[in-house]
């Protein structure tokens, strides 16, 4: 019996040794984030390891770090480690060990010195004008990245939905054009990696890697070079970020790091976002109504992050901080903002504010009314949550502008929409615009009428908001009929090899392109020189069917803006007796060759008003 027992024990031992030999050592193929910074306010940090044989593994840390493994996936593909970084730990590359049943693997992790904050992380304000660019459609500065061989799909400018070759270097090469135009900031649609072999997404909203730059646009080094070059010219940079969803081909979709990483991953068909933003502000909405915009997949195909999973929440918060810290950008435009539960946004924004107190985020919230839009602005606690969101894209005002200036709706609509500014905590920090990359160009809405475009853009640049312009509108891009991507997201003329016209140069701008550009450039520089147009009070003097008149006032000056359709009465008398303007105060015309307007017996009289009249006076109120 003893021999038999010994034989069994020997066989069991041999079996254990064989099984152990078949278990591979842990392997790490991706580390997110790949680096962090000394003395950062985010500490501890989540580090997500992707690889194999990670289930049940432990992570051994070098001196200066403490590690807690909080979760590993059952299939061994993911491990969530939280690093606590000692404040005395120096910058450098550190190697960590991952110990499992089959052995030990290693991975590097960099701890960096932070970028010098001087001239970076500046935020933006009513002093700025932000210019929106789609990198793929603006300018091709590096032909070598047009068709990366490992992606197997070439850039093709003849195909609307294909990539066209625009890149980060192309934007950098034309920063001088933007500086000359008079804008003060650049906002780019997302630059996350969107491409996979045989697949590309030119617009940037279908990310497959949140820690990589789209290779067709360039590298992280190219992005940093662009940001630094912009800062040297006094231009700010706003990054488009997406925390609501990924692209459908993201590797986390077929193999999620946690069972609750996505909303309703197993559901077929997917819960589809119905964009019912009003439900989220409605105190009487039933839970089911709120669930659809929060948990639904955008267009039914873009996987929706579940930010109530704390591991997802930490991942997305750190990703935002990582891009800011890596690049030195000044602001973020957050895509599809309302479709994420607000408690997450409070945590997300708080983390950014702690590290970068001057940084500004603006949210894309396509609400139809100020009552709904204002619900999301920070500074007040609603339903127990303060989003702390400083700025919002003003879609209700944009809708009004397109109707009033593009389709001849009564100008009283401008007064009606602005009368609701009292709903906002800080209306001056909303972003005003007449169009963007998701809608037909304004010139299309206006039936190709350039005069309507000029009047709309004049309002944008002179009202009480932060203006943003859409690339190409300053050269009258768009037609009176084409509402497709071919017009909305057309290539900027002169940005690509072989273009017959180069609108980046004055000789390449003729006809309507020259008319619109010259007006816009002059008005943008006028705005830079006149603080009343940036931070002054706004007083509406008259709002009628075909005329809208308002005054911007600062301690230094007054600026009068008169917008008149041809059907309005002439001459125009503007009563200013209640504004305490000095008798005889002389307003000079922005347009050359126009006579001054003089305060006479409490009135300003414009004998021959044009579509657009702008006057200014260097005199304070007399109180």
In a few lines, what is going on in this structure?
The chain has 623 residues and is an alpha/beta fold.
Please give a structural write-up.
By secondary structure, this protein is an alpha/beta fold. Helix content is 27%, strand content 22%. The protein has an eight-stranded parallel β-sheet with strand order 16-15-14-13-10-9-18-17. A six-stranded antiparallel β-sheet has the order 19-20-21-26-23-24. Helix 8 runs parallel beside helix 9 and helix 14 packs parallel to helix 16. The N and C termini lie far apart (113 Å). About 1% of the residues have low confidence.
SSE layout and pairing:
Elements: H1 2-22, E1 27-32, E2 35-37, E3 45-52, E4 58-60, E5 65-72, E6 78-85, E7 92-100, E8 103-112, E9 130-133, H2 135-138, H3 168-173, H4 175-181, E10 185-188, E11 192-193, E12 209-213, H5 220-232, E13 236-241, H6 277-281, H7 287-295, H8 310-327, E14 331-334, H9 342-355, E15 360-363, H10 370-373, E16 391-392, H11 395-407, H12 412-418, E17 431-432, H13 442-445, H14 450-462, E18 466-470, H15 485-488, H16 511-529, H17 531-535, E19 537-543, E20 547-553, E21 558-564, E22 572-575, E23 586-589, E24 597-598, E25 603-606, E26 612-617
Parallel strand pairs: 2-8, 9-10, 9-18, 10-13, 13-14, 14-15, 15-16, 17-18
Antiparallel strand pairs: 1-3, 3-6, 4-7, 5-6, 7-8, 11-12, 19-20, 20-21, 21-26, 22-25, 23-24, 23-26
Helix pairs in contact: 8-9, 11-12, 11-14, 14-16
């Amino acid at each position: 019996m003893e021999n038999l027992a010994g034989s069994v024990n020997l066989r069991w031992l041999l079996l254990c040794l064989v099984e152990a030999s078949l278990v591979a050592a842990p392997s790490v193929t991706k580390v997110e984030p790949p680096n962090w910074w000394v003395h950062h306010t985010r500490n501890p940090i989540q580090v997500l390891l992707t690889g194999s044989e990670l289930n049940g593994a432990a992570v051994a840390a070098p001196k200066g770090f403490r590690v807690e493994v909080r979760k590993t996936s059952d299939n061994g593909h993911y491990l969530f480690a939280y690093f606590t970084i000692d404040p005395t730990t120096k910058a450098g590359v550190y190697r960590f060990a991952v110990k499992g049943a089959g052995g030990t693997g290693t991975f590097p992790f960099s701890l960096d010195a932070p970028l010098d904050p001087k001239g970076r992380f500046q935020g933006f304000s009513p002093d700025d004008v932000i210019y929106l660019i789609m990198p793929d459609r603006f300018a091709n500065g590096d032909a070598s990245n047009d068709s990366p061989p490992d992606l197997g799909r070439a850039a093709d400018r003849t195909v609307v939905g294909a990539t066209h070759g625009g890149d980060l270097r192309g934007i950098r090469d034309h920063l001088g054009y933007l500086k000359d135009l008079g804008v003060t900031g650049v906002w780019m649609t997302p630059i996350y990696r969107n491409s996979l072999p045989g697949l590309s997404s030119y617009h940037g909203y279908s990310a497959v890697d949140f820690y990589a730059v789209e290779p067709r646009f360039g590298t992280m080094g190219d992005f940093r070079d662009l940001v630094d070059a912009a800062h040297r010219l006094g231009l700010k940079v706003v990054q488009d970020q997406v925390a609501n969803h990924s692209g459908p081909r993201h590797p986390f979709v077929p193999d999620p790091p946690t069972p609750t990483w996505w909303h309703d991953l197993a559901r077929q068909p997917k819960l589809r976002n119905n964009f019912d933003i009003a439900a989220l502000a409605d105190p009487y909405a039933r839970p089911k109504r709120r669930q659809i915009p929060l948990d639904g997949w955008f267009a039914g195909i873009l996987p929706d992050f579940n930010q109530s999973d704390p591991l997802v929440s930490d991942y997305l918060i750190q990703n935002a901080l990582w891009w800011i810290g890596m690049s030195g950008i000044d602001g973020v435009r957050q895509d599809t903002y309302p479709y994420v539960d607000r408690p997450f946004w409070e945590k997300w924004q708080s983390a950014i504010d702690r590290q970068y107190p001057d940084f500004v985020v603006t949210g894309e919230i396509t609400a139809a009314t100020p009552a709904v839009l204002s619900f999301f602005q920070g500074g007040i606690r609603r339903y127990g949550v303060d989003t702390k969101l400083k700025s919002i894209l003003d879609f209700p005002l944009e809708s009004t502008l397109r109707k009033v200036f593009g389709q001849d709706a009564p100008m009283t609509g401008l007064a009606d929409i602005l009368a609701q500014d009292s709903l906002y905590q800080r209306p001056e920090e909303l972003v005003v615009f007449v169009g963007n990359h998701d809608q037909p160009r304004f010139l299309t809405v206006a039936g190709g009428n350039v005069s309507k475009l000029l009047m709309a853009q004049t309002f944008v640049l002179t009202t009480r908001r932060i203006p943003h312009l859409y690339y190409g509108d300053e050269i009258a891009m768009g037609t009176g009929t084409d509402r497709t991507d071919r017009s909305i997201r057309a290539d900027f003329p002169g940005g690509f090899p072989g273009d017959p016209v180069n609108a980046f140069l004055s000789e390449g701008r003729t006809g309507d392109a020259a008319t619109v550009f010259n007006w816009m450039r002059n008005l943008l520089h006028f705005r830079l020189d006149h603080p009343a147009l940036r931070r002054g009070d706004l007083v509406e003097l008259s709002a009628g069917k075909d005329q809208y008149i308002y005054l911007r006032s600062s301690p230094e000056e007054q600026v009068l803006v008169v917008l008149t359709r041809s059907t309005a009465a002439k001459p125009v008398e503007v009563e200013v007796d209640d504004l305490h303007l000095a008798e005889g105060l002389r307003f000079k015309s922005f347009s050359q060759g126009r006579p001054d307007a003089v305060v006479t017996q409490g009135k300003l009289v414009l004998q021959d008003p044009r579509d657009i009249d702008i006057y200014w006076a260097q005199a304070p109120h007399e109180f």
